[in-house]
Amino acid sequence: MNCGKYQSQFNDYLDGDLSLREREKLQHHLKECLPCYRKWSSLQKTQEILHQLPTLDPPEHLSAVVMARLKNRRLRQPLWFSANLPRWLPMGVGAALLLLISVVLWQVMPSQYPWQSLFPSSRKNVATTTRPAEPSQETFTIRKGAPGSSVPVMVLRVKDFSRADQQLQSMLRSFTRPPLPERESSRSPHAKSARLFQLQVPGQRLPHLLRELHKIGHLDQSQVESQKLANPGQQKQVSISIRIVVVSNGSDVEIRQLREGR
Amino acid sequence: MGTKSLAQHSSSVKRHEDQVLVDRCRRGDRESFAQLMRLHEKKIYNFTYRMLGSEGEAEDLTQDIFIAAFRGIRSFRGEAKFSTWLYRIALNQARNRIKYLSRRNFFARQTRRADYGTNTVSESPEGLADSAPTPEQWTMAKDLAAQVQECLNQIPPQARQILLLRDIQGFSYDELSEMLSLRPGTVKSRLHRARAAMRDCLSEKLE
Q: Is residue A31 part of a domain?
């Protein structure tokens, strides 16, 4: 005897949705099982009561009140939207207008990207990203030089020293315009560390470098500003004397020492 | 069989009549809306009364439902029956009103007062005294409709609405599914729980 199964059929039985066989089995079960019969019987009586609930008449003035309240109201949507127009039409018209505006802007704007003239700050970003990718992006910091020395130190961060040569070469190339002559760049960077570098810093590298030099006090704010003013649009190059140090795992090792260690 | 096809015919005539009135109303004919209202106000009023258990609140809610229907009539595209669309509005409005009234303890006060206006049954329904588990108590109940309303107020609004729409208003499962945006299986299981809750409440009250 599975009372749960039969009780779950009560609703279908009420709605007349049971097959003849299911109905007969349920009726047979109800004859034998008193708890199920009681549940079924009370459910059936509840249904009868609900069906026999009296129907109320709404107040006579109801429609008059509603119509009075509607007197000054308008239908929610504009007339052109209502008629028998297909539902997609307003969206289609909107999309077509948007496309038209885009095409007109594209044709009218003189720059490569129409939005550049609308948003000047975005032009700079786009211009930067359209240049060839620079190797070793901002993997350096600038520190003060040794006491008594006015030459700042550029600290180059590398993951491992075995690649230090390669990374230094690529960074030097990215920091010089025009690129280092072949004979220079082919030499080991270790040798260069013994002397100062005269870096020709390309324009897009300049802000970061100026900021770093300002942080260590090598340049004061007025010098930074004058450098920026001297390089409007950051298109020009500046020369700077700097000592280079390679860093890995938090310990600074001068390139010279690195070479001696090998 | 003949009765069924007659009922179907009557339903399709009603639907056509609604559609004609809706089309006129969308063109700005307010008198057509008044006619639509007269056709549906009784059912909507009874639904709201059973949902809220108060004639005054039911009247206010019915007004709001028809005003919302009038304002949104242009969004009715005739894909469903007008009554189905109207009940969707009624359900939304009733849900909001129940939330509003619950925050003000309306239903608790209503149960204490047990005041359901003129909606009482003076005579017990036929056939209640035969094989029911507690037929004597049921037949002895002086105010059965009020007891029923108390139970309706006690069961969750979600269960109440599905019970009213199916067992009192007589909508089909497909129509309920469309109105409530639920799958037919979900409608069935919710109705199952609602009927059980109502049965338990009534049995307890009338024992």
A: yes
User: Rounded to 10 degrees, what is the CA torsion of B47, B53, B56, B61?
Assistant: -40
Q: Which residues contact B48 (CB under 8 A, 6 or more apart)?
A: B57, B58, B61, B62, B65, B90, B94
Alpha-carbon gap, residue A44 to A42, rounded angstroms: 5
The boundaries of the domain holding residue A246 are: 140-261
Q: For chain A, what is the domain count?
A: 2
| ipTM exceeding cut-off 0.90 for this assembly | no
> What domains lie within chain B, and their CATH numbers?
1-113 (1.10.1740.10), 118-207 (1.10.10.10)
Say which DSSP state A75 is in: -
B137: closest CA of chain A, how far (Å): 12
pTM of the predicted model, to two decimals?
Answer: 0.55
Among partner residues B34, B128, B168, which is closest to A50 by beta-carbon distance?
B168
* Per-window interface: B 54-93 vs A, CB < 8 A: 55, 59, 62-63, 66-67, 70-75, 77
Question: For A73, which residue in chain B has the nearest alpha carbon?
Answer: B71
Tell whether A119 is covered by a domain.
Answer: no
Concatenated DSSP letters of B121-150: -SSPPTTTTSS-SSHHHHHH-S-HHHHHHH
Contact across the interface for B128 and A41, Cβ inside 8 Å: no
Does residue A225 lie in a domain region?
A: yes
Using the beta-carbon criterion (under 8 Å), do A42 and B199 form an inter-chain contact? yes
Q: Is residue A163 part of a domain?
A: yes
Kindly give the confidence (pLDDT) of every residue in chain A, 262 residues in length, as a single tens digit, with 9 standing for 90 and above: 588 889 989 999 998 889 999 999 999 999 999 999 999 999 999 999 898 888 899 998 998 889 988 887 666 554 455 455 666 788 889 999 999 998 888 777 655 555 555 554 444 433 333 333 344 444 667 777 777 777 777 776 666 555 666 666 666 666 654 444 433 433 334 333 433 555 556 556 667 777 777 776 666 677 667 666 665 555 555 666 667 666 655 444 444 433 333 2
